[in-house]
Amino acid sequence: QANYAAANAYLDALAVHRRSLGLPAHSLAWGLWAQAGGMTGTLDEADLTRIARGGVAPLATEEGVALFDAAVRGADPAVLPVKLDLASLRAQGEALAPLFRGLVPVRRAGAAGGRSTPGGADALRDRLAALLETEREAFLTELVQSHVATILGYRSAQDVGRTLPFRELGFDSLAAVELRNRLTT
């Protein structure tokens, strides 16, 4: 999708430039449409689940047409007509992408009783220090498996094969970035 991203960034900049010259222009960075087609035609259930977990809901055709009409009437040359699930965005806590942080308040892991490591990095460091060396690997493996299970839609962390390569587990580049972001948080 890198080619699409580069082309769309150019079109966004072109729309802004044309508007600065007083010329007409609109660039719309569409969210997911409910009707499959084009790039979305090959999405499987795991892809759709990951997108939904990321806080993006599919647009019905009527919603898309209404958003198109609003964009054309609007003053902004580049807009994102996308349907967001704010509850899903809030549920991401500190793992929420910076793009969405102005839309929903981000709860700190310590305040929210963080999912896998309450209290954040300091609590994780303390927890690891309290474990025997032989227990640390099991704890960290379970932590990573639980995030992998969530990202890929497995029923439980135990369903994630410990020795399988990421590709065989079902990872693609987007899922890998999501795992990195979760583990960083």
**Which class of secondary structure composition applies to the elements?**
mainly alpha
Q: What is the helix fraction of residues, given as a range?
A: 40-55%
Question: In oligomeric terms, what are we looking at?
Answer: single chain
Q: What Rg do the Cα atoms give? A: 20 Å
Q: Write the element-wise H/E pattern from the N-terminal end onward.
A: HEHEHEEHHHHHH
Percent of sequence in beta strands? under 5%
Helix tally equals 9
Spatial ordering of strands, largest sheet: 1-3
Tell me the distance between the termini.
26 Å
Strand element count:
4
Overall mean confidence score, pLDDT: 84
User: What spatial form do the alpha-carbon principal axes imply?
Assistant: elongated
Instruction: List segments where confidence is low: pLDDT < 50 over at least 5 consecutive residues.
Output: 109-116
What's the story with the biggest beta sheet?
2 strands, parallel
